[in-house]
Design brief:
Blueprint lengths: L8 E4 L19 H5 L8 E5 L3 E3 L2 E2 L5 E5 L6 E3 L11 E5 L2 E4 L7 E6 L4 E2 L1 E2 L29 E5 L14 E5 L5 H4 L3 E11 L6 E4 L2 E10 L5 E4 L2 E5 L2 E5 L5 E4 L3 E4 L2 E7 L2 E5 L2 E7 L7 E9 L2 E3 L3 E7 L10 E9 L2 E5 L13 E6 L9 E4 L2 E5 L4 E5 L7 E3 L2 E5 L3 E7 L5 E2 L2 H4 L8 E5 L1
Parallel strand pairs: 1-2, 2-5, 3-6, 4-14, 5-15, 6-16, 11-12, 14-16, 15-17, 16-18, 17-22, 18-23, 21-24, 22-25, 23-26, 24-27, 25-28, 26-29, 27-30, 28-31, 29-32, 30-33, 31-34, 32-35, 33-36, 35-38
Antiparallel strand pairs: 7-8, 8-13, 9-10, 9-14, 12-13, 19-20, 36-37
């Protein structure tokens, strides 16, 4: 980026030193911990060296831009605290079942081998001691000995939900019949439970030209004037958010998320892939009595692929009797390539909900335009779109989009709540409301 003269700038390099002042490439800091210890002034820049890699997380500061400097690949920030092919060791605790030596105090949502060539199959249990609906098999849960197939893994995350007094709590167990996992794969990364960059409701933050991988969120909890641009965000989510009243675990994780109201939320020129939930999203549930306004949302020129929801939005109605204001306005989804909705999130029990554009059947009130235009939407494991709304006049406008779906595939749900699932057929997509779009079938 072009940094204005006289601006306060901080540099981070893998070859830096935390005893430096951080104000030039020659005096760069080395670690994220040093960055977290600094009080950053409004309007300052934080520059990570291209080609460098850091493990960890941090909370963004109000009015600060985080970007790259130098030449080479984007600087990479990994949520995974370890590379299991390099750090620690794997012990065979039962035939073909390997326990990783390092504990995780938050849930491990996924294991990624060789940077995406292969990935794990997360096995869960509920409070009753049986496996959840998320696992097709009905095998009775018996700790890690229930693992039977390659890539299946469990995480006994004792510091969150299990008995904290158990000495075995916190370990990851992986089934591998090819020998020590560290010898089978060159890289083993763990998706851990946190956001790499938490905006924490701070305003006026820009994230530019960074690569964020292996965490439950890439960027989360933004507010006003948040811009995410030119970034790579991949292998996100899968960690347990909580349990239902029936004791069944549900999982989550988004590439870029704003929860609650927002003003001027821009995601432009990003590559986002393999997210257990949404690649890009702004959302608020149907609870509470607080005012929520989402005004000025722009998802433009992004490539989003292999996410359960390429772009997700929803705004719920306030609690019964509340008279607060809630609406979306000036919402644009434009010039994006949205490919192959699904990805590793197809492990989820509600995989039927997969869609490129996902608004659910929420209230989704609108005051101002909602335009979906000039996008290429290419194939989905389930729905292409799910854009429901409660009142006439709150519908999105589809125009100049190209939709490409497999023969026999789903079109999805669009219209007044409750929406109805429709198949991808000439009769459905030939409706007058879609007249300004193009549709193709892959046979």
């Amino acid at each position: 980026m072009d940094i204005p003269a006289g601006t306060t700038v901080y540099y981070l390099s893998p070859n830096g030193n935390d005893n430096n002042n951080g104000h030039s490439p020659a005096t760069a800091w080395k670690t994220i911990d040093r960055l977290k210890a600094e009080e950053l002034p409004y309007g300052s820049y934080v520059c990570f060296e291209r080609g460098g890699m850091w493990r960890g997380k941090f909370v963004a500061s109000t009015g600060v831009t985080y970007t790259a400097y130098g030449e080479g690949p984007k600087p990479e920030l990994r949520g995974s605290p370890y590379d299991g092919a390099v750090d620690g060791c794997w012990d065979e605790v039962a035939p073909n079942i390997w326990r990783y030596s390092e504990k995780f105090t938050g849930d491990v949502g996924m294991i990624v081998m060789n940077h995406g060539e292969e990935n794990g199959i997360k096995m869960l249990m509920d409070y009753s001691g049986e496996q959840t609906k998320e696992i097709v098999s009905k095998r009775v849960w018996n700790g890690y000995t229930s693992l039977e197939k390659n890539h299946e893994f469990v995480h006994d995350f004792g510091d969150r939900y299990m008995d904290k007094t158990k000495p075995e709590g916190g370990y990851v167990y992986l089934y591998c019949d090819k020998g020590n996992p560290a010898n089978v794969w060159n890289s083993i990364e763990f998706i851990d439970l946190f956001a790499i960059i938490s905006i924490d409701r701070h305003d006026d933050v820009t994230i530019d030209n960074l690569c964020l991988k292996y965490s439950n969120f890439g960027v989360s909890s933004g507010k006003d004037n948040l811009c995410i641009q030119n970034c790579e965000i991949g292998w996100i989510g899968g960690c347990i958010q909580g349990y239902s009243k029936a004791g069944v675990a549900w999982r989550y994780g988004n590439g870029v998320e704003i929860y609650g109201g927002c003003l001027n939320f821009v995601c432009d020129h990003n590559w986002v892939y393999q997210c257990y939930d949404a690649g890009l999203t702004q959302q608020h549930s149907a609870v509470g009595t607080n005012k929520v306004i989402m005004d000025g949302i722009f998802y433009t020129r992004n490539l989003v692929e292999k996410c359960v929801y390429s772009i997700e939005y929803f705004l719920g109605k306030a609690s019964e009797g509340a008279t607060v204001t809630r609406y979306m306005a000036n919402f644009h989804i434009r010039d994006n390539i949205l490919m192959d909705a699904g990805g590793f999130g197809m492990q989820r029990p509600d995989s039927a909900s997969v869609a490129h554009i996902k608004g659910w059947d929420h209230f989704n009130p609108l005051q101002g335009e909602f335009i979906i235009e000039d996008n290429l939407l290419l194939r989905s494991e389930k729905m292409m779109v799910h854009t429901g709304y409660a009142n006439v006049g709150d519908e999105p406008v589809y125009r100049n989009n190209i939709f490409v779906q497999d023969e026999g595939g789903q079109w999805g749900r669009n219209g007044l709540n409750p929406t109805t699932l429709e198949m991808y057929t000439a009769e459905v997509v030939g409706a007058e409301q879609y007249a300004k779009n193009e549709f193709y079938i892959i046979q």
